[in-house]
Amino acid sequence: MKKIKISYENIKFIENINNSYIKNKNKKFKIFFKKNKKKNKNNLKYKVKKIINFYRNFGFIYSDINPLKKKKKLNFNYFKIKKYKYKINKYIKKYTYFKNKINNIKKLKKILEKTYCNKIGYEFNYIKNYKENKWIKKKIENKLNKYKFNKLEKKEILKYLIYTKEFEKCINNKFLAQKRFSLEGSESFIILLKFLLKFINKKYKINEIIIGMAHRGRLNTLVNFMGKNINKIFKEFKGKKLKNNFSGDVKYHKGYCSTILLNNKKILNLILLYNPSHLEKINPILQGITKNRKNFFKKNIIPILIHGDSSFSGQGIVMETLNLQKINGYSNNGTIHIIINNQIGFTTSNNKNQRSTKFCSDIAKMFEMPVLHVNSNSVEKVIIVLKFALDYKIKFKKDIIINLISYRKLGHNEQDNPNITQPLMYKKIKNIKEIKKIYNNKLLKKNIINNNYIIKIKNEFYNNIKNNNLINYPIKNIKNKIFYINKNIKNKIIITKISYKKIKYLISKIIKIPKIINIHPLIKKIFKNKKINFKNKIIDWSTSENLLFSSILSEGFSIRITGQDVSRGTFSNRHAVIFDQIYKKKYIPLKKISFKKSKFEINNTILSEEAILGFEYGYSISNSKNITIWEAQFGDFSNCAQVIIDQFITSGEKKWNISSNLIIFLPHGYEGQGPEHSSSRIERFLQLSSNNNIVISQPNNSSQLFHLIRKQIYNNKIKPLIVLTPKSLLRNKNISSKIKEFTNGFFRPINFNNDKILFFNKIKYLAFCSGKIYYDLNKIYIKNNLKNVFIFSLDKIYPFPKKIFFSILNKFKKIKKIFWIQDEPKNQGIWKYFKYIVSKKYKKIIFIGRKNNSSTSSGSFINHCKEKNKIINFFLKKTKNEN
């Protein structure tokens, strides 16, 4: 048998092949494997490599990273090494990045233990990128062990620990048993943030830090990092009167924006975002704000997300947001994630009840993100980990996780008794030394400080409270410069029409496709029809959309449109992006029109509603000169993002005085496609509407859409706009508009087909409706030549156009009844809202529509048609009898 050279790395793989062919009678084949197996086991090179890789892969499991648990002991006999005096210098140079002299395996074991099984646990060897993996190993084995703190830095660390601790103590003494969501047990988090400023000051060209976090430790962060006046916090605990148009939020949900001046005269913006109790929901919002500020303000930003251990592994929005980190239109070149891991979620501390993985951070492996586990009681190691995370994020433009393993000294809040549910855990916590005392004793032993230093810092803290100067860097509140805040200004009269000359120029650009683009035959036909329509002075819905976008771009606004199928349009209607059928080319007509100050961006998104809508909301609150549009694939799916709608979009201005110009397109209409493809749940948006917080509209033709959006963007007060858009109607010629509606028209809150209403005195019935049913009724109206009834389309739903509505009623003197007709069941849609407003002045209102239903619609097309015919026939019966 010929000799075959096989590398030792592949021996195990070949052993597996041997095992699968164990029944093979070829003795020479078996002998070959036996010989190589013996060689492999006794080979020093193999053993050295095995030891190194073991520590790199599994060292974190044996690290001293949990302040509540003893370090796991590693049995070195696992490697079956009888002698420790083998000379291994050449292998150390080849397989590691240590600069120390390592002559034998004993020394190798010692240095690996110190590096990989100390107060920091590193998880990274699942990263496939060779350069990235190599850089991490080199950083850990060569540089991190050399980082040393000078005496001044050590004193500074202790000072920040005292400030952090005294803040909690001060609040507790002043406002006993009031909720503050204390940081006690995780105080090193504030030191991490403080040293972030030091590193930026020394080395990094960063001009903005944006932080998203839940309520644990927020008050401490506001005062000791953001620079909020502690006396303002005291006032918030006591309670204060709020303005009539502002309901406010609890103190531990509030954000803050400040500009600080660092030692080297570098100006740095600090932004702590407002967040409700919904923990991780802030994640995509932070990413959206960061993206906007990078795009429009050219800021070099460090985004930081602070997580809880239970919420990080438990809430789906975490995974959805992490998935955005490399997606076109969503990437922010890396975020630093810090898990304040107090090893308990509310009252649940057993890992078997919290997650299916060993660590809460294990989701990171899915995205090949390094995880740095660190014992929060070892505050210097926490700072080293931060330095590592900063260097990695800036070099590789990727997310990284710091798992700050700590504990929670008190209950979920200060009114909870955690001993009831975690008696053993809290016995340990009661006996554990506080971080401040641990570090204080360390400095006393080294004669860096004396007892007078601690007294001095405490006195300094309380003196600074009196002088309103707790932070040693100048602070300026800049909320108005970061977010758009509506002012008390009356809405001006807005002219939304544009000239025929401008329309002609813009349409010529958006319907023209170069010959070099190999266009699909169907798209070719669509664009040909657009040209024919324009010659006939008609503009369909999709052309109206593109005309709208191009007109806005020409006036200096940038536009960002996103959604799961926005490039083409869910119903193959938009075609804002043309795909070459032969080559990998895309042609975007709106990008080919030259506008100096504006940008056009259109992105198909990942299959997510919650994270994407959260991101777009964040993008929309930071810059009023950008129009942000998110389109649901079907309006029904918007409820996947209900928390973002409830807690941010509809209530953000009332709670936090932050306005958004986000526009949401929700395809809506009853067409027999079943309960999940019919309704945008208008009733839910109406339930959330109050104090003119949002605008809800269902434009019934292409010019109405054009004027609606243009009116919205030029309004003095910016508001989120919910637009219910058509589906099958997109191919209905009736929703196309004449060009004169764009050159001379305006948005009509209550719309109708006839320009003039004749014979007011003959009209006995008024029918009001909204959406697709208007065209169904109009068809019957014309077919049956109904002369005693007039049909109106309610295009602006909220705020209700009361003046226009009641002025219409006043013109009709002989009205017997008013009908409200809708496709939606009686307990859904607009009916209850319409009835509530109109019945105050007019009692004779009749509902025509489907019966109450817990589902939105029937799943049967036949049933759908029967129900629709019943609505039409009932309307006809009520009006035809009087003709």
TrEMBL record:
Domain Transketolase-like pyrimidine-binding: 539-732
This protein's UniProt keywords: Oxidoreductase, Thiamine pyrophosphate
Taxonomic superkingdom: Bacteria
GO biological process: tricarboxylic acid cycle
SUPFAM superfamilies: Thiamin diphosphate-binding fold (THDP-binding)
Class in the EC hierarchy, top level: oxidoreductase
Enzyme nomenclature, EC number: 1.2.4.2
GO cellular component, one term: oxoglutarate dehydrogenase complex
InterPro entries linked: 2oxoglutarate_DH_E1, DH_E1, KGD_C_sf, ODO-1/KGD_C, THDP-binding, Transketolase-like_Pyr-bd
Cofactor: thiamine diphosphate
Record field: transmembrane: none
GO molecular function: oxoglutarate dehydrogenase (succinyl-transferring) activity; thiamine pyrophosphate binding
SMART domains xref list: Transket_pyr
Pfam families documented for this protein: E1_dh, OxoGdeHyase_C, Transket_pyr
Annotated function: E1 component of the 2-oxoglutarate dehydrogenase (OGDH) complex which catalyzes the decarboxylation of 2-oxoglutarate, the first step in the conversion of 2-oxoglutarate to succinyl-CoA and CO(2).
Protein name, as recorded: oxoglutarate dehydrogenase (succinyl-transferring)
Species of origin: Zinderia insecticola (strain CARI)
Gene: sucA
